[in-house]
Amino acid sequence: MNIKQxxxxxxxxxxxxxISLAKKRVPVxxxxxxGLGGTAMATQKLREATNKEPVIFNVSLKDxxxxxxxxxxxxxxxSEIFPNSELIKIAKDGTAHPVMMDECxxxxxxAVGKNTLAFIFDRMVGGKKIPDDCLIIAITNLAxxxxxxxxxxxxxxxxxxxxxxxxxxxxxxxxxxxxKYEPEISAWALQNTQMGTESFEDxxxxxxxxxxxxxxKVHNSLGIFDPKIPSGEQYLNYRSxxxxxxxxxxxxxxxxxxxxxGVAMMGAMGERATxxxxxxxxxxxxxxxxxDVDADPENCKLPADGAASSLMLHKLRDMTQVFNSEGxxxxxxxxxxxxxxxxxIKRMKREYQAQFVRGSMKDSRVNKIYEKNDDFQDLAVExxxxxxxxx
Length: 391
What we know:
Elements: E1 9-10, H1 11-23, E2 28-32, H2 38-50, E3 55-58, E4 68-73, E5 78-83, E6 99-102, H3 110-121, E7 124-125, E8 128-129, E9 136-141, H4 153-156, E10 160-165, H5 169-177, H6 183-191, H7 194-197, H8 200-204, H9 213-219, H10 238-254, H11 258-269, H12 271-284, H13 290-295, H14 306-318, H15 331-345, H16 350-362, H17 367-371, H18 374-382
């Protein structure tokens, strides 16, 4: 596409920058496109940075009483506001939990706006200072989306505003998806990487698409979120993957038909993305089972094409663990399965070996299991993921 370079950083990098600024008690606001999974990612990164569960304070759902509690002093007939214990939480070690002010620029009332900005700028609630060790980051949407996000100039210039764009699909999966998504969701996302590289802001910068909604719809083959297209037609984003994953998990648990799953998926990710996903999902029933791979890794048939290969890799990773009838992990059987999987993986093309290594290193459910396998470590070193996995 012939587009201008974005004046922003990726979501994952922006969150890292925001946390670094917050540690210096610098007021910071992340401004993002709708549905990038920013709340989930920021929560995870704050948890990792502090070893404490973050407080998620959704400004758009709060009123002024949610910030502090009014307390009367009967002796001198005065009153004062104390920070709400649901906003400022103190851990057993005496330090404060981090706070993320979500939907920060969506003020329901002037009082909410006043209290929000006093909390972020002055680190105060009702005249009371909050603890110095309390990390605060704020996050909200682009004003161009028309979702009610607005700050006055004198408010904006008291913040460090970091504009962020979508992470590439691979980065999103590594930071969030591999530890959560069903294998079909991960495989589909990797086959449709434009959902992580294209944005409605790009379309605004393309002269041939800027003011022509009909051309925008045709160009946008997956139905990626575009606020200029009527609601309900184009809204695919990373949040959609979360909902699609929930639908797929239930479909497997409750044995939904393909048509029933398709209806649910359309409500999660839109019609265009669903049509694409269901094509890959039907392919899943035609490839070899991970159990077949485990039984005969040296002779089990390899997938015929790229989509099937990607799908197989994620199905293998998803079925790494072996549990007994009581749901307890069987370590010996799991180690044997890992060895069998790696025998099979080594028969595949190098790009698929690398994809398997990357996914396994970033899947918190199984990465410790794979890291203990010598063959896997050799592959990790070969593809240079062992040294870069946590960077």
